[in-house]
Protein backbone atom coordinates (compact mmCIF):
# COMPACT_ATOMS: atom_id res chain seq x y z
CA UNK A 1 0.00 0.00 0.00
CA UNK A 2 1.13 3.53 -0.74
CA UNK A 3 0.94 5.56 2.47
CA UNK A 4 1.26 9.25 3.25
CA UNK A 5 1.87 10.42 6.80
CA UNK A 6 0.96 13.75 8.37
CA UNK A 7 2.66 14.79 11.62
CA UNK A 8 0.88 17.69 13.32
CA UNK A 9 2.63 17.99 16.68
CA UNK A 10 6.12 18.91 17.80
CA UNK A 11 8.61 16.56 19.45
CA UNK A 12 8.62 15.60 23.16
CA UNK A 13 5.54 17.59 24.23
CA UNK A 14 3.32 15.21 22.31
CA UNK A 15 3.69 11.54 21.38
CA UNK A 16 2.50 12.13 17.80
CA UNK A 17 5.98 12.25 16.30
CA UNK A 18 7.08 9.07 18.14
CA UNK A 19 3.95 7.24 17.02
CA UNK A 20 4.40 8.43 13.44
CA UNK A 21 8.03 7.27 13.50
CA UNK A 22 7.07 3.84 14.84
CA UNK A 23 4.26 3.58 12.31
CA UNK A 24 6.50 4.50 9.37
CA UNK A 25 9.17 2.03 10.49
CA UNK A 26 6.64 -0.78 10.90
CA UNK A 27 4.97 0.00 7.56
CA UNK A 28 8.31 -0.14 5.74
CA UNK A 29 9.16 -3.43 7.47
CA UNK A 30 5.84 -4.84 6.26
CA UNK A 31 6.72 -3.88 2.70
CA UNK A 32 4.51 -0.80 2.32
CA UNK A 33 5.64 2.29 0.48
CA UNK A 34 5.85 5.52 2.45
CA UNK A 35 5.18 8.10 -0.22
CA UNK A 36 5.83 11.11 1.94
CA UNK A 37 5.95 12.30 5.55
CA UNK A 38 4.54 15.80 5.84
CA UNK A 39 5.16 17.97 8.90
CA UNK A 40 2.57 20.63 9.70
CA UNK A 41 1.51 22.89 12.60
CA UNK A 42 4.05 22.42 15.46
CA UNK A 43 5.11 19.25 13.63
CA UNK A 44 7.64 21.41 11.78
CA UNK A 45 9.64 21.53 15.03
CA UNK A 46 10.62 17.92 14.40
CA UNK A 47 13.03 19.17 11.78
CA UNK A 48 15.45 21.42 13.66
CA UNK A 49 18.95 19.98 13.95
CA UNK A 50 19.57 22.20 17.00
CA UNK A 51 17.51 19.76 19.08
CA UNK A 52 19.65 18.39 21.91
CA UNK A 53 17.72 16.21 24.38
CA UNK A 54 19.34 14.71 27.52
CA UNK A 55 21.67 11.81 26.71
CA UNK A 56 19.37 9.16 28.13
CA UNK A 57 16.45 10.29 25.96
CA UNK A 58 15.77 9.57 22.31
CA UNK A 59 16.75 12.19 19.74
CA UNK A 60 13.52 12.44 17.77
CA UNK A 61 14.99 14.65 15.04
CA UNK A 62 18.08 12.52 14.42
CA UNK A 63 15.94 9.41 14.43
CA UNK A 64 13.82 10.83 11.58
CA UNK A 65 16.95 11.87 9.66
CA UNK A 66 18.43 8.38 9.99
CA UNK A 67 15.21 6.68 8.93
CA UNK A 68 14.98 8.97 5.90
CA UNK A 69 18.54 8.17 4.92
CA UNK A 70 18.08 4.42 5.31
CA UNK A 71 14.86 4.28 3.30
CA UNK A 72 15.09 7.31 1.05
CA UNK A 73 12.04 8.90 2.71
CA UNK A 74 10.59 12.13 1.39
CA UNK A 75 10.17 14.28 4.51
CA UNK A 76 8.53 17.62 3.79
CA UNK A 77 8.16 20.54 6.18
CA UNK A 78 5.42 23.06 5.40
CA UNK A 79 7.02 26.36 4.46
CA UNK A 80 4.36 28.65 5.96
CA UNK A 81 4.25 26.73 9.25
CA UNK A 82 8.08 26.60 9.29
CA UNK A 83 8.44 30.35 8.77
CA UNK A 84 6.09 31.04 11.68
CA UNK A 85 8.14 28.82 13.97
CA UNK A 86 11.68 29.69 12.92
CA UNK A 87 12.55 26.61 10.88
CA UNK A 88 14.83 27.60 8.01
CA UNK A 89 16.88 25.92 5.36
CA UNK A 90 19.81 27.67 3.70
CA UNK A 91 17.80 29.15 0.82
CA UNK A 92 14.98 30.34 3.02
CA UNK A 93 17.36 31.91 5.55
CA UNK A 94 19.07 33.79 2.73
CA UNK A 95 15.76 34.89 1.24
CA UNK A 96 14.46 36.16 4.60
CA UNK A 97 17.76 37.78 5.57
CA UNK A 98 18.32 35.49 8.56
CA UNK A 99 21.79 34.85 10.01
CA UNK A 100 21.36 31.09 10.37
CA UNK A 101 19.48 28.02 9.27
CA UNK A 102 18.55 24.98 11.30
CA UNK A 103 16.96 22.30 9.16
CA UNK A 104 18.15 18.77 9.82
CA UNK A 105 19.39 16.32 7.22
CA UNK A 106 16.72 14.53 5.23
CA UNK A 107 14.04 17.22 5.59
CA UNK A 108 13.05 19.61 2.84
CA UNK A 109 10.90 22.73 3.03
CA UNK A 110 8.04 22.99 0.57
CA UNK A 111 4.42 24.05 0.21
CA UNK A 112 1.11 22.69 1.44
CA UNK A 113 0.43 21.42 -2.05
CA UNK A 114 2.74 18.53 -1.15
CA UNK A 115 0.26 17.45 1.51
CA UNK A 116 -2.75 17.61 -0.80
CA UNK A 117 -0.79 15.81 -3.49
CA UNK A 118 0.06 13.05 -1.01
CA UNK A 119 -3.66 12.73 -0.28
CA UNK A 120 -4.33 12.32 -3.98
CA UNK A 121 -1.49 9.89 -4.70
CA UNK A 122 -1.67 7.64 -1.64
CA UNK A 123 -4.02 4.79 -0.79
CA UNK A 124 -4.08 6.10 2.77
CA UNK A 125 -3.16 9.38 4.43
CA UNK A 126 -2.53 8.76 8.11
CA UNK A 127 -2.56 11.69 10.56
CA UNK A 128 -0.67 11.83 13.85
CA UNK A 129 -1.64 14.55 16.29
CA UNK A 130 -4.62 15.79 18.25
CA UNK B 1 -11.17 3.04 -2.72
CA UNK B 2 -9.73 3.31 -6.21
CA UNK B 3 -12.99 2.14 -7.80
CA UNK B 4 -14.67 5.26 -6.42
CA UNK B 5 -12.28 7.61 -8.15
CA UNK B 6 -13.18 9.43 -11.30
CA UNK B 7 -10.62 10.06 -13.95
CA UNK B 8 -10.85 13.43 -15.59
CA UNK B 9 -8.27 15.01 -17.84
CA UNK B 10 -5.84 12.36 -16.68
CA UNK B 11 -6.16 13.45 -13.05
CA UNK B 12 -7.67 11.69 -10.07
CA UNK B 13 -10.55 13.35 -8.25
CA UNK B 14 -10.87 12.27 -4.66
CA UNK B 15 -13.30 13.24 -1.97
CA UNK B 16 -11.38 15.36 0.51
CA UNK B 17 -13.02 16.37 3.74
CA UNK B 18 -11.46 18.75 6.23
CA UNK B 19 -12.86 18.20 9.69
CA UNK B 20 -12.73 21.23 11.95
CA UNK B 21 -13.02 20.47 15.65
CA UNK B 22 -11.39 23.37 17.44
CA UNK B 23 -12.39 26.88 18.45
CA UNK B 24 -10.83 29.52 16.20
CA UNK B 25 -8.30 31.39 18.37
CA UNK B 26 -7.26 29.20 21.31
CA UNK B 27 -4.96 27.21 19.06
CA UNK B 28 -3.64 27.65 15.53
CA UNK B 29 -5.33 24.54 14.10
CA UNK B 30 -8.34 26.33 12.59
CA UNK B 31 -6.24 29.02 10.90
CA UNK B 32 -3.59 26.68 9.51
CA UNK B 33 -6.30 24.18 8.60
CA UNK B 34 -7.99 26.79 6.49
CA UNK B 35 -4.71 27.34 4.64
CA UNK B 36 -4.73 23.68 3.58
CA UNK B 37 -8.35 23.95 2.46
CA UNK B 38 -7.54 26.94 0.24
CA UNK B 39 -4.53 25.17 -1.30
CA UNK B 40 -6.60 22.07 -1.96
CA UNK B 41 -8.88 24.14 -4.19
CA UNK B 42 -6.05 24.42 -6.71
CA UNK B 43 -5.97 20.63 -7.13
CA UNK B 44 -9.52 20.35 -8.46
CA UNK B 45 -10.63 17.79 -5.91
CA UNK B 46 -14.08 17.21 -4.46
CA UNK B 47 -13.56 19.24 -1.28
CA UNK B 48 -15.91 19.59 1.68
CA UNK B 49 -15.58 20.73 5.28
CA UNK B 50 -17.21 19.51 8.45
CA UNK B 51 -17.57 21.51 11.64
CA UNK B 52 -18.03 19.55 14.84
CA UNK B 53 -17.42 20.10 18.57
CA UNK B 54 -15.90 23.56 19.22
CA UNK B 55 -15.19 23.76 15.48
CA UNK B 56 -18.68 25.24 15.01
CA UNK B 57 -17.41 28.41 16.73
CA UNK B 58 -15.15 28.97 13.71
CA UNK B 59 -18.25 29.98 11.74
CA UNK B 60 -19.81 32.24 14.34
CA UNK B 61 -20.87 35.68 13.16
CA UNK B 62 -19.44 38.83 14.68
CA UNK B 63 -15.99 37.61 15.68
CA UNK B 64 -13.95 40.44 17.15
CA UNK B 65 -10.32 39.66 17.89
CA UNK B 66 -9.08 43.17 18.63
CA UNK B 67 -8.49 42.51 22.31
CA UNK B 68 -6.73 39.23 21.52
CA UNK B 69 -4.19 40.88 19.26
CA UNK B 70 -4.87 38.19 16.68
CA UNK B 71 -6.07 38.48 13.13
CA UNK B 72 -9.78 37.84 12.63
CA UNK B 73 -9.68 35.26 9.86
CA UNK B 74 -13.39 34.48 9.85
CA UNK B 75 -14.06 36.46 6.61
CA UNK B 76 -12.03 33.76 4.84
CA UNK B 77 -14.90 31.30 5.33
CA UNK B 78 -17.07 33.60 3.26
CA UNK B 79 -14.46 33.51 0.49
CA UNK B 80 -14.58 29.71 0.22
CA UNK B 81 -17.47 29.90 -2.21
CA UNK B 82 -15.17 31.67 -4.67
CA UNK B 83 -12.89 28.64 -4.49
CA UNK B 84 -15.81 26.32 -5.28
CA UNK B 85 -15.78 24.99 -1.74
CA UNK B 86 -19.46 25.07 -0.95
CA UNK B 87 -20.11 21.88 0.98
CA UNK B 88 -19.84 23.02 4.58
CA UNK B 89 -21.42 20.53 6.95
CA UNK B 90 -22.23 21.46 10.54
CA UNK B 91 -23.13 18.86 13.12
CA UNK B 92 -26.49 19.72 14.67
CA UNK B 93 -25.64 18.28 18.10
CA UNK B 94 -22.44 20.33 18.38
CA UNK B 95 -24.25 23.49 17.32
CA UNK B 96 -27.15 23.01 19.70
CA UNK B 97 -24.92 22.05 22.64
CA UNK B 98 -23.31 25.49 22.25
CA UNK B 99 -26.59 27.37 22.04
CA UNK B 100 -26.09 28.24 18.39
CA UNK B 101 -28.50 28.14 15.47
CA UNK B 102 -27.89 28.43 11.73
CA UNK B 103 -28.67 32.17 12.00
CA UNK B 104 -25.59 32.63 14.17
CA UNK B 105 -23.29 31.39 11.40
CA UNK B 106 -21.58 33.63 8.86
CA UNK B 107 -21.93 31.32 5.85
CA UNK B 108 -24.59 29.05 4.40
CA UNK B 109 -24.12 25.57 5.77
CA UNK B 110 -25.71 22.15 5.57
CA UNK B 111 -26.78 21.08 9.04
CA UNK B 112 -26.67 17.34 9.67
CA UNK B 113 -27.24 15.22 12.71
CA UNK B 114 -24.40 13.10 14.03
CA UNK B 115 -25.45 9.90 12.27
CA UNK B 116 -25.86 11.62 8.89
CA UNK B 117 -22.50 13.30 9.22
CA UNK B 118 -20.86 10.02 10.20
CA UNK B 119 -22.17 8.52 6.96
CA UNK B 120 -20.76 11.53 5.08
CA UNK B 121 -17.35 10.99 6.67
CA UNK B 122 -17.53 7.36 5.66
CA UNK B 123 -17.91 8.35 1.98
CA UNK B 124 -14.63 10.26 1.90
CA UNK B 125 -11.34 9.17 0.35
CA UNK B 126 -9.21 11.55 2.39
CA UNK B 127 -10.05 12.97 5.81
CA UNK B 128 -7.85 15.63 7.32
CA UNK B 129 -8.81 16.72 10.77
CA UNK B 130 -7.79 19.93 12.52
TrEMBL record, chain A:
<keyword id="KW-0963">Cytoplasm</keyword>
<dbReference type="InterPro" id="IPR017463">
    <property type="entry name" value="Sulphur_relay_TusD/DsrE"/>
</dbReference>
<dbReference type="GO" id="GO:0002143">
    <property type="term" value="P:tRNA wobble position uridine thiolation"/>
</dbReference>
<dbReference type="GO" id="GO:1990228">
    <property type="term" value="C:sulfurtransferase complex"/>
</dbReference>
<comment type="similarity">
    <text>Belongs to the DsrE/TusD family.</text>
</comment>
<dbReference type="InterPro" id="IPR027396">
    <property type="entry name" value="DsrEFH-like"/>
</dbReference>
<dbReference type="Pfam" id="PF02635">
    <property type="entry name" value="DsrE"/>
</dbReference>
<dbReference type="GO" id="GO:0097163">
    <property type="term" value="F:sulfur carrier activity"/>
</dbReference>
<dbReference type="GO" id="GO:0016783">
    <property type="term" value="F:sulfurtransferase activity"/>
</dbReference>
<dbReference type="InterPro" id="IPR003787">
    <property type="entry name" value="Sulphur_relay_DsrE/F-like"/>
</dbReference>
<keyword id="KW-0808">Transferase</keyword>
<protein>
    <submittedName>
        <fullName>Sulfurtransferase complex subunit TusD</fullName>
    </submittedName>
</protein>
TrEMBL record, chain B:
<dbReference type="Pfam" id="PF02635">
    <property type="entry name" value="DsrE"/>
</dbReference>
<dbReference type="InterPro" id="IPR003787">
    <property type="entry name" value="Sulphur_relay_DsrE/F-like"/>
</dbReference>
<keyword id="KW-0808">Transferase</keyword>
<dbReference type="InterPro" id="IPR027396">
    <property type="entry name" value="DsrEFH-like"/>
</dbReference>
<comment type="similarity">
    <text>Belongs to the DsrF/TusC family.</text>
</comment>
<protein>
    <submittedName>
        <fullName>Sulfurtransferase complex subunit TusC</fullName>
    </submittedName>
</protein>
<dbReference type="InterPro" id="IPR017462">
    <property type="entry name" value="Sulphur_relay_TusC/DsrF"/>
</dbReference>
<dbReference type="GO" id="GO:0016740">
    <property type="term" value="F:transferase activity"/>
</dbReference>
Amino acid sequence: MKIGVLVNEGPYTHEASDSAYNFVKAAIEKGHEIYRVFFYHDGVNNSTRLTEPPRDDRNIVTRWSELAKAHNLDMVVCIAAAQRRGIMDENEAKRQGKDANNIAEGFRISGLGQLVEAGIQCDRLVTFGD
Amino acid sequence: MSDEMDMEEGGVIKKFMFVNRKAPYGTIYALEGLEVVLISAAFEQDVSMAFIDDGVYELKKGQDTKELGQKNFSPTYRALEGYDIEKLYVERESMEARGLTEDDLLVDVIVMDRAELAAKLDEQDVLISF
